[in-house]
Structures are given as structure tokens and as C-alpha cells.
Amino acid sequence: MEIKGIGALVSGGASGLGEASARQLIQDGARVAILDLDQERGQALAEKLGQAAVFLKTDVTDEASVQAAVDAAAAGFGAVHLVLNCAGVAPAAKVLSKEGPMSLAGFNKVVQINLIGTINLIRLAAAKMVLNEPLNQDGERGVIINTASVAAFEGQIGQAAYASSKAAVVGLTLPLAREFAAYGIRVMAIAPGIFETPMMAGLPEKARLALPKMVPFPPRLGAPAEYARLVKHIIENPMLNGETIRLDAALRMAAK
């Protein structure tokens, strides 16, 4: 699918991986709706990116909020061709700590944002995508890209909620790709390693210092722009479908 002229929805688009991807998409000629709860940051980014960008304050866990954003983007752009799910949280918490069992509400919040928020946007946006005219000879109508994590495969101690939510995102990929094949919609996932994002900045200092030392090569944190370049390639390469791509510089997470 060519990027120029498409309408894109980017959740978590006001910062980190979502922001970098929104910038890349705008650069390549897309129109982008930035979906985020951070209105100040999101509005400022949309204004900086110009007329091809719009900010829509959105709670991905709320059906009405997401429906309103999808409807607004579809009306403004004429169609929705891309969904990029970058909204997510990664609080660290052991299931059993000195304070006792993990808060069920805390676990549920992670799942609601990372998993339910992802499928919520997919299901509502896909209902618009199926109405698109095919964009090429393959009959392609859209692309969905979800953000998983290497924690889906090697979750560390304290990542039970985060790792399980991201493993579920990986699990969504193939069945959705198979289901949406009939509509000409591809579904992919990216499993990033350790990237320079606000989520990384929110980790305990001990973890922030230790994690980069685990990366084989290049021995550094990933740049959000590198994630965005993979998003670009997935959109443009029609044979990428139903797969989760690790973007991790050969990182394999240790237990802690």
C-alpha cells in the first residue's frame, strides 16, 4: 500500500513510538489522526505537523471515545486506511510483594489499555476499512499494525501484567490477519526491544541503567524513528501479513 494520500489513525500518537510514526507518515504524504489522552502534547504536535495532522483526544478503553475518533477521522480524511496501535502502559509490579498480593485493579488496568484498547480501535476502524475502494491490484483496503513487546516472549520479574497483555497482542495477529484477508486488510505486529520512550523513562532507575547493557548490537537503546521506519516498510510491503516482527537488536531479556 502506498502511504501518500492514506488516512491513518495512530493511538498513543502524542509521544514515543506513536509520535515518531506520525511524523514519518506525515513526511510520506499521509493524513494522520493522533489519538491520545494528553491533549496539550497532542494538540501541540498536530499543529507542528501541519494541516495533514489532527489531534483527537481519545481513551482507547472507552467504546464511545474511540468510535467518535474513528468517525471524525473517516469524515475528515474520506477513509481510514491505516491503524497503528501504540497506546500502552508498563507499570512494574510483582504478583507477590512485601505488601501482599498484586492489586487486581492494577493488573486489569494494564490489560484494559494494552489489550482491550488495541482490539477496541481495531474493531471500530476495521468497520470503516472494509468500505474502502481497493487501493491496488491486490485488492488491498488497509493495514493494521499493533505494538507488542519482546516482553511477550521473555517477560521479566515484575512484568506479569505487561508481558501477558503484550503476549495477547501477539496472539491477535494471525487470527485477525486470517479473518481480514477476505476484506483485503493486512494485520501485523511489531515487538520492540528497549527504546527511548516516555515508558522507558518511567521505569525504576535501576532498570533504566541495567536494560541497555543487555542489548547485543547495536549496544544502545532503540530510537523511535527506527520503529517508525519499520512501520513504513510494513505498510509498503504487501507480503508482510500475520506476523510479529522483533525489533530488538538481538536482545533476549534476562529474568530481572
- Number of beta strands: 9
Overall average pLDDT: 95
Listing every helix as H and every strand as E from the N terminus to the C terminus, the arrangement reads EHEHEHEEEHEHHEHHHE
**Which stretches are poorly predicted, pLDDT < 50 over at least 5 residues?**
none
What is the name of the CATH topology? Answer: Rossmann fold
Give structural notes.
This protein has helices at residues 16-27, 39-49, 63-77, 104-129, 151-154, 160-180, 198-201, 205-210, 224-236, and strands at residues 7-11, 31-36, 53-57, 82-85, 96-97, 100-101, 142-147, 185-192, 244-247. It is of the alpha/beta class and 256 residues long. It has one domain (7-247): NAD(P)-binding Rossmann-like Domain (Rossmann fold). Strands 3-2-1-4-7-8-9 form a 7-stranded parallel beta sheet, with helices on both faces. β2, α2 and β3 form a beta-alpha-beta unit. α1 (16-27) crosses α9, α3 packs parallel to α4 (104-129) and α4 (104-129) packs parallel to α6. The chain is globular, with a radius of gyration of 18 Å. The termini are far apart.
